[in-house]
Specification:
The chain is of the alpha/beta class and about 775 residues long. The chain has 29 helices and 24 strands. About 40% of the residues are buried. The structure holds a DNA duplex (15 and 10 nucleotides).
DNA sequence: ATAAGTCATTTTTTT
DNA sequence: AATGACTTAT
């Protein structure tokens, strides 16, 4: 068995111990994924049926990678493995079993935005103080309750929880939770946490269902076990109860999701729950240089809560860790991107070798600007995902409502988009009626003729209902792609956007085309998890059509996708992402930026030792991503909400032993003094007009803003623009108010496209232009 | 009912 | 600095 030859002795033991509970504690860079994938391959080689293996991960990306690597060893048989995220696998199972819990099979999955919107409505309807009951806070309370398997009733009966809520001045959260659960149920919707909670309830209340899946999945593997919460662990424990072939892989030192309910206790308890567990510790690091490995150990040792473990490596010393102090966030961006440029030149690196890691998504901007200046291609992971764009959400809402008429959030989103004369007043009335009669909003609209209160908007409502119903009829006749295309056209969305010739409008139109292409791909993909026979629990075979490619299945899947899941590795680009998103990845050159107190560690994490330790683990994860070149940067000043703040360097820097750090390249400390906002842009010489809307995203567009003289604007002219100072017009496209100018800004901002309709440019002079 | 204009809030990470 | 909620005018 050649695949075993590639492993060291501990790894091989961990792979071949296939019966009984196993815990693998795997330090960073210790070949964790290799062990997991080889283990799966080995299971199959030893005769395990591919349908009987369940592997759970946290991200779709990890699941995909695992599947691909197993496929490399065992071939296409790997496609029948149940490898997926907790959420997607449970969503899939619930799709077949939800009717037992009273949910439709086509249930909607509410994402965080949907959930918060619903909470907002509920808080408003209950006439609660909305400065106290913020959707965010309430959502987090409910979420952590669900992650601990606490339902609305238990929530209201739990002494400790009630005491906490009373103390924070929010005693009504229990009632909101109850109402929220009811509304979700009535809408046939589950939120992310429900996928876990309902899955658990399913296994608990229906012994036959439990029996079915317990015998179906003989081998259960959990990746990133340190990130499981109580609900996830409880489900896994139930599923694996018959065969006890549970293999968990994790590293307590890399637990960074406690805000989502993850608890290291699961790792610590595993040995208690399974006394006969075999534990393997993978401590040899194959990824990083000595300096990096030693620094990582030095940092993590400051945590009290941990399984003692020290990673070591046989690799070379390598370069020391570079520490850089910048004057401001913009300066930091410039220094980092210059270093990338230099490194590329000197050592023939490709863009793919670099990653810039930060604590919060908002930090990416300075780096983007500078990378653009140097013409280095880059890609940002995370942030606003494709599926969160307005136009995509609009189309998806139509699809969701077609599949599940009771989906309240989808309904509210599109009932008047494109505008059809059904305004807020009408919808408020309908909401009151729905709650009075204890039915869904859709039911009210469906019987609009029996509702005298809604008579004014009765006709448009009737038309809308008929349209959605006509879509639903097509569900059985057309495939997901054809139907979606039909809906996008018939709903009027495509038309609305097609008429919008602004650059934004064009890109929205293209996004919708991309969404439709995605649906087409889905209907042709082999990646979809195999279907399960809901009677027997048998996984259906390979035959075409056995994979669930209905529109409903697609919708349930995309809600669980994030931007990070898209494969962006094909193009040679520098990557920018949060540290959370970087878990499991490795790069030759890593920049960890924004190392300032209150930013990293976050000021939110300075209240308790536990929180601070989690930030430290986050730092540990960040530095152990690096193979051979690691750079840490921090800024002396940073802008927030437009205000300049002074910063202290992060305590984590001080925790690294000086022998691992090279701070020779640090610019000399400057006296603290405020800097100009636009360090690299010439300040405007005079104010032109008081307000200029942002140019690449129109907040409140006003046709009143026009250029001094649009007809005169032509290439070669120098103009002044409020925020970016001075630049020359490079290109002019289109005619009339819809003309777009490309402006080459000096001092390194690069090219910016501005639509004349929305921007006012002041012409300074015309540089000689012979054309 | 809609569009434009004014005001107030913003404090992390993600399935 | 940027965005969503609220107000006013049509």
């Amino acid at each position: 068995m050649s695949y075993l030859d590639e492993l060291n002795s501990v790894q091989r033991e961990a792979v071949t111990a296939i019966e009984g509970p196993v815990m693998i504690v795997a330090g960073p860079g210790s070949g964790k994924t290799k062990v997991l994938t080889t283990r799966i391959a080995h299971l199959m080689n030893e005769g395990a049926d591919s349908f009987s293996i369940l592997a759970l991960t946290f991200t779709n990306k990890a699941a995909k990678e695992m599947k691909e690597r197993v496929e490399k060893i065992v071939g296409t048989e790997a496609r029948n493995l149940y490898i997926g995220t907790f959420h997607s696998v449970f969503a899939r199972i619930l799709r077949y079993e939800a009717t037992k819990l009273g949910y439709p099979a086509n249930f909607t999955i509410y994402d965080t935005d949907d959930a918060k919107n619903l909470l907002k409505s509920i808080i408003k309807e209950m006439a609660l103080n909305d400065t106290l009951y913020k959707p965010n806070i309430v959502y987090n309370r409910i979420s952590s309750a669900k992650n601990s398997l606490v339902g609305p009733t238990e929530y209201q009966n739990d002494y400790n929880i009630q005491a906490d809520d009373a103390e924070s001045g929010r005693p009504k959260i229990g009632l909101i939770y109850e109402q929220y659960a009811k509304r979700c149920f009535m809408a046939g919707a589950m939120d992310f946490d429900d996928l876990l909670l309902k899955m658990y309830q399913l296994l608990e209340r229906f012994p036959d269902v439990l029996h079915k899946y317990q015998h179906r999945f003989k081998y259960v593997l959990i990746d990133e076990f340190q990130d499981t919460n109580f609900a996830q662990y409880s489900i896994v424990k139930k599923l694996g109860d018959v065969f006890q072939n549970i293999c968990v892989v994790g590293d307590d030192a890399q637990s960074i999701y406690s805000f989502r309910g993850a608890t290291i206790a699961n790792i610590l308890n595993f040995e208690k729950d399974y006394p006969e567990v075999r534990v393997f510790k993978l401590e040899q690091n194959y990824r990083s240089t000595q300096h990096i490995v030693k620094a990582a150990n030095k940092v993590i040792v400051n945590n009290k809560t941990q399984i003692t473990k020290e990673i070591w490596t046989e690799n070379n010393d390598g370069e020391k860790i570079k520490l850089v102090k910048a004057m401001s966030d913009n300066d930091e961006g410039r220094i980092v991107c210059d270093m990338i440029f230099e490194e590329k030149m000197q050592n023939q690196r490709s863009n793919n070798d670099f990653v810039i890691l930060y604590r919060t998504n908002a930090q990416s901007r300075a780096f983007e600007e500078q990378l653009r200046r140097l013409n280095i291609h880059y890609v940002i992971y995370g942030g606003i995902s494709f599926y969160q764009r307005k136009e995509i959400r609009d189309v998806v809402a139509y699809l969701r409502l077609t599949v599940n008429h009771n989906d309240e959030e989808a309904l509210k989103r599109i009932i008047n988009f494109p505008t059809r004369g059904i305004g807020q007043t009408t919808m408020d009335k309908a909401a009151v009626l729905a709650s009075q009669q204890n039915v869904s909003l859709w039911t009210i609209l469906e019987h609009v003729n029996q509702q005298p209160d809604l008579s004014r908007a009765a006709t448009p409502i009737y038309d809308f209902v008929m349209m959605i119903k006509s879509f639903a009829v097509e569900l059985k006749k057309q495939n997901a792609f054809d139907l979606s295309t039909h809906i996008a056209k018939a709903s009027g969305i495509l038309k609305e956007l097609y008429n919008d010739k602004t650059p934004e409008g064009v890109s929205r139109y293209e996004n919708i085309q991309a969404l439709l292409n995605g649906i087409k791909e889905f209907t042709e993909s082999e990646e979809v998890l195999p279907a399960i026979d809901s009677d027997t629990g048998e996984v259906l075979g390979n035959a075409e059509g056995d994979r669930d490619k209905t529109l409903a299945a697609y919708l349930q899947q995309i809600t669980l996708l994030t931007d990070a899941d898209k494969d962006k590795n094909d193009i040679d680009r520098v990557k920018l992402m949060t540290i959370h998103a970087a878990k499991g990845l490795e790069f030759p050159c890593v920049f960890v930026v924004g190392l300032e107190e209150n930013l990293f560690p976050s000021m939110m994490a300075l209240d308790s030792r536990e929180d601070l330790e989690e930030e430290r683990r986050l730092f540990y994860v960040a530095i152990t991503r690096a193979k051979d070149k690691l750079t840490l940067t921090y800024a002396a000043t940073r802008y927030k909400y437009g205000n300049l703040n002074y910063c202290e360097p992060s305590r984590f820097i001080a925790e690294i032993h000086p022998s691992n750090i090279d701070d020779s390249g640090v610019p000399k400390a400057q006296p603290k003094q405020p800097m100009m906002r636009d360090d690299y842009f010439e300040a405007p010489r005079k104010t032109i007009i008081p307000k200029v809307p942002k140019t690449d995203y129109v907040h409140n567009p006003s046709p009143d803003f026009v250029a001094d003289d649009t007809s005169n604007i032509q290439p070669g002219m120098e103009v002044e623009h409020q925020r970016f100072g001075i630049g020359t017009i490079d290109k002019v496209e289109g005619g009339g108010y819809d003309r777009i100018v490309s402006i080459n800004f000096q001092n390194g901002v690069g090219i910016k496209k501005i639509m004349l309709k929305y921007a006012k440019l002041h012409i300074l002079k015309s540089i000689s232009n012979n054309q």
